[in-house]
Amino acid sequence: MNLKKLLVPVLSLALLFPTLANAEVKPKATVNTPAVELRASLDHLLSEHFVLAVTSMTKAYDGAADSKAVFDALNQNALDMKPAIASIYGEAGAAEFDRIFRNHNNYTDDIVNATKSNDQAALKEVDKEVEDFVIEFSTFLATATEGHLPKKAAEDVIRLHEKQVRDTFDSYVKGDYKAAYETFREGFKTMFSISKALSVAIVAQMPEKFKNSKADTPAADLRSALNSLASEHVALATMEMQKEYEGAKDFPSLIWAETQHTADFKAAISSIYGAEGANQFEKIWVTDHINAQSSIAAAQKKGDLQAREAAKKRVEAFVIEFGGFLGAATAENLPAKAAQDAVRTHEAQVLQAFDEYVAGNYDAAYKTFREAYKLLIGVGQVLGDAIVTQFNDKFQVPADTGSMTTVWMKINSSELKINDKVTQMDTTPFMWESWTFIPLRYLSEGIGAEVIWEDGTRTIWVKAGNDTLTFWVGKDYMEVNGVKQDIGTKVFINKDGRTVIPLRFIAELLGWDVEWNDMDWSIKLTKAM
């Protein structure tokens, strides 16, 4: 395998927002600024909270021996947030945060107990407690940030988070494990949307404290995307090894979730290093890594020490090969030796947490898990720094010069152009009953907006700057910052599984000029950015 033979990168709009062409000499893009560090810290603690909250509930429902250790880790996660809040809002602000946030951890036990006893009255009371928390916590955040994070926006995303935790748990209880892990993955990603919104608000409130840096630059988005992919891996790997060892019923669905995660990671690699680099990544990542970790758990369950040692040797082979891949891909901006050392430490921590779990030393197991989780959050910094250094011009922050942004697409064509950037969509614009429909996510993310999907209510939030647009599948209206707007026809999901919306309404609402070409059925949107 020739690790140095990688394709010229074509950066995906789903991961990287387009830069506007201009001739200015710009400051060097970087993942290492005070604002990006704030966002990364929130990425870490908020996403870990979600993982531990869901795990605590499912373990408690099963009556697992490690359920108390998970709940203790969940509470420690909340305590670890307190110093970060104190550094921004002082001790009084941190104390109020701690009171609100840690109290809501107790709802996990209340939900589990009411569910196990099928106490509908108790479940209704918990629902009320959760909604009270949503209102109180969103009020705290809006007040603390002096309105830079609007109360309505905070309410919406916190309520979504609570619903995703509950939906994951309810699906688990019903034995619908695939649905549980689908919602788990959605809920996990939501935490990174929360950390972005909160960090942007705090930085806007206190620009001097963060040296006038920004939390939502292309480099910051890359680092956060890598934070998400790396930390979700350690969460899924830890659960997978435990579940395989225990012979748990949800183990096959967890394997499915790991496969979906690998596909997401592969897509991210492809967006930077092309299809060849992505294929190399997938082969290395799965063969002597994901599969080998599973082999260790299976061997431990059988008491086959020889098979376990053979699997450990495969993991070491992965360490060498994957570190070499990262070094070659980044042109040694991340040195292969440094990558190998970091990957080796990660593998040792995952194995240590598993061994402590098998030994029944659950407090130690979750302490090690939290260390492993923190280590992989650091991947976003080191790998992100290497990629941004390698392709710095791709991560430049657009200058506010009033330059025009042009979006081009064509009926029945999968090609999308934004300025000089081209991407291939997995669906196409089309016409139906005199309406032109376009895929919401591609347009939104292509112009730098953030898209959040909530499966249970089939709701889509599009966050563009300080504005929040809310759509519902099957509805012919939407909301802009909480204000209802008719859109003339229903939003729906097309045959490719993509949410589509009427072009002219959304374009004109956002201030884009629409130009239709009757000759080739192409559409051009322009706007001064």
From TrEMBL:
Q: Which Pfam families match?
A: Cu_amine_oxidN1 (PF07833)
Question: Which domain of life does the UniProt lineage start with?
Answer: Bacteria
Query: May I ask which residue range the UniProt record assigns to the signal sequence?
Result: 1-23
Q: Does the keyword Signal apply?
A: yes
Keyword terms, alphabetized: Signal
InterPro entries cross-referenced by the UniProt entry: Cu_amine_oxidase-like_N, Mao_N_sf
Q: Which residues form the Copper amine oxidase-like N-terminal domain?
A: 418-523
Protein name as it appears in the record: Uncharacterized protein YdcH (DUF465 family)
Taxonomically, what lineage is the organism? Bacteria, Bacillati, Bacillota, Bacilli, Bacillales
